Fold each of these.
Amino acid sequence: MKWLALGGAAVLALLGAVAVGPAGLSTDTATVAIIRDLRVPRALLAFLVGGSLAVTGAGLQALVRNPLADPYLLGLSGGAGLGAVGAIALHLTSPWVLPASAFVGALAAIVVVYRLGVVTGAVLDTRVLLLAGVVVGAFAAAMMGAIMAVSSAAELRNAFVWLLGGFASASWQTVTVFAAYAAVPVTLIYVTARPLDLLTLGEEPATYLGADVERTKRTVYVAASLLTAAAVAVSGTIGFVGLVVPHAVRLLWGHLHRTLLPAAFLLGGTLLVLADALARTLFAPVELPVGVVTAFVGVPVFVLLLRRWPR
Amino acid sequence: MILEARRLVFRYDAAASAALDGVDLTLDAGELLAVVGPNGSGKTTLLRVLLGALEPGQGEVLLLQRPLTTWDRRELARTVGVVVQREEAAFPLRVREAAMMGRYAHMGPLGAPGARDEAAVARALSRCDVTGLAGRWVGTLSGGEWQRVRLARALAQEPRALVLDEPTANLDLAHEMELFELAAHLARADGLAALVVTHHLNLAARYADRLVVLHRGQVAAAGPPPDVMRRDVLEPVFGWPIEVGHWRETPQFIPLKRSESA
């Protein structure tokens, strides 16, 4: 029943997002072309990115044993953005190179954040980790600002808008590239669902219950970096989807990852499709960056979680 | 022989002396073995080496006659169930879900738990007398209930050996006794090899078949309680004057007040 409702919501959100827009819904050739070439790929891309970000958030939360983890808050998005901006500044803009350099940036960010998080001892302190994420994110933002100010690459003129997140550049090509890119890491996280359950108990009990802790951590960090990189490359830095969605799913589906992860994918996709529809219709013809919309929802949820989880 | 350790040596990085310095240990099916010793004597280090979480500098551990280094984690989890000292779930879990995690080493990566898994969990919950708690959140359990649930989870692994690290720390008397009763019963009635690390020498002497006393990383004494519960053995280890009395046949130790030891 819950699954049926979730699947139905996803389909309705996609149909609704395809139906709304300045050209409306009709069967004349121009409108059909707009729907086929703009709205449908845009809605699909938003769905895939939202699902990927939600799965990434859920996986990272299990790893750091804290519901406040999110690719944006842990600095992965910033690192990926910096990688992408660096690539553009160096005129490396092919659809496969951009995500690859974003991946390098995301992976570097998570390695630095993780190192900072364990700096106080052998044990990972999640509060230090989140602080480290914010600091690395701020540093990445500063570096991106510097590169954009100095670089001569024409593509960077609009980078500020792109970095706030949006699907204006969605096309069937970006949908295909993103789907191909994201399929492997999403699957990787999903097949580690059981080790992730065990990791939420702590590394030592997880080990004795049969989890290969180091391999699980490596898998999820790499997969999370890949997903964040792919998301940032096609749609900029969109925060809080990875935070809000797993939290909502936990309330309804519980905390076991075998159900949490697919439910998070569906709900994350649904929410980002709706957020994008809002972003482009609220002040039409002016388009809001979708990252602004998700932040409006996400920040209150973050504050709520911060108060409920004192650890 | 379920578990056998030969001349284990382990040294933490930058430590002046070895945490384990030539420790031998055996554990048979159907026996309860208690490892005792003062703080810092190497009990937890020994456990971690025996469970493959730490690699010994010298010596080796054999599980079912096979070197521990040749076991992978899942295989190990199907053979040895462990209740660690401290554990805190980061997210809320039902007791049933927590116990099912004992089955993960038997399951594939995907798919729902099968009938065998459900049966093993039901058996384990019933064995530890926590069937009635199955629907509760683990965060709402008392200390004693949580320990029994974790023991049930270890039993759901359907192991040959059970390892319990300070299982009765922070428990009140009745829960502590219940846990020792249960551990002893699992060894004797179910034929499990049970290893318990504990501070409670007197309870260990009454429930365990054999005691191993660790002192500064070495085995100070090992054997049945009457061989170990002796003044000349325990006084130097614990660094405090004691007297040994008896409750029925079992030796029990009594720490002396300064005014009594003069």
Amino acid sequence: MNQTLDPVFASGLRRELVAQVSAPTHRVRRRALVVGVGVMGVLTLGGVAAVAGSQPPGVGVTQPLAPPVVVNSVGPANVVLPPVPQGALYVRLELTCYDGLKCNTPGGGATRDADTGIPMVQRDDIPLTDAHDPRDAQRIPPYDPAVGVHIDVNPGTHWRLYAVYTDQFLPGPATAGDGRTVGIPAMIPPDLVPMVATNGRNGYVDYRLLTDAGHPTLTADGTSQPSVPVYDVDGTTVIGYADVSKPLH
Amino acid sequence: MRADGEAEDWRRVLTGEGEAFGRLFDAHHQRVYRHALRLVSSTHDAEDITAGAFLELWRRRDKVRVVDGSVVPWLLVTTTNLALNRRRSLRRHRAFLARLPRQEPLVPDAGSVALSRADLDVDPRLIDAIRELGATDQQLVVLVALEGYQLREAATAIGLSPEAARSRWQRIRRRLAGSVTPETLALAAEH
């Protein structure tokens, strides 16, 4: 049996592949959203209950203890988060990797591509104190502000980190007005997660647009993606837009 | 192919340049095919899997993980998964595969199958044992035991810490001890 690919088959396959790649694509591009003046202050703190916006219909939604952080970069890094707010017990991380095969934070587990098994989003809860929640089986060391969160990826990997402080290990999501789930990501991320719009208003963005379905353009220092709509807790009313492509430095 | 040249070709592929994809195919199709041959029982299946791996490279271009400028680790991992789940995973490419020219008979010959695996220095029991492992362990064994990556390189490629890879490797060795020639796994573990 031949250990090299049959040249006739290879030639035919090559021709078909080149034709596929060269064919005009019919992908529907998302409509670019125009951003107003101002940049989301992702590395600044807003104080306790910063996303305390309107309550009904999202009654019961767990509020972050400070504005969520979103940063983008390339390759391994340590991310020093804003000062830990009073009462916070965990920082919740969602690390999305847009290329490379390695996508790790200190603990947690990854959402993997169904066909390839390659990690797409690594989600993690890092304790902020030694008082681990009894359900926290990993018991990784508490976050050290002097070191930051280690982003363990391949050199050249483009990534986005979403981090949010919470006083709960596994906050449960609530239901937005349109039936989608809303809240701080836990083992199963909700449809909408907290975010601050560029206009300073607190609301929620589509988790998938924030992570693996954002399809950002990969740049030299991170990612570029049109601003994403920020919704009120009803899940439908747009109250602003958020920049999710802010670079780490 | 130089890694920087491959990275440039991949960038061009993402802009829809077909010939750049052709160059990537030229550079890597034999390695992908040989890897597929180790995992399946006929040249026909290995051809299908090779075609499927490159089709997936294009279809999933937005999610392909490039390592050190190369798409080879992604291709090998994808080839493994296609081979181990080929009936399900190649279904979507049935029409495409039917258009490709075939030179080999479609019915596998058991004698030539055994020969091919012997020629490829693969213990057939290893292939059978790999099928029983979880997805991550499969990738680890394939990259280390079949493709010659060092354990730490394989760990990097599939997103494991070196410590986690060593721990998994020890567990895999214990699990496969009864079905695989010890030399195969022992050599790999020394990397």
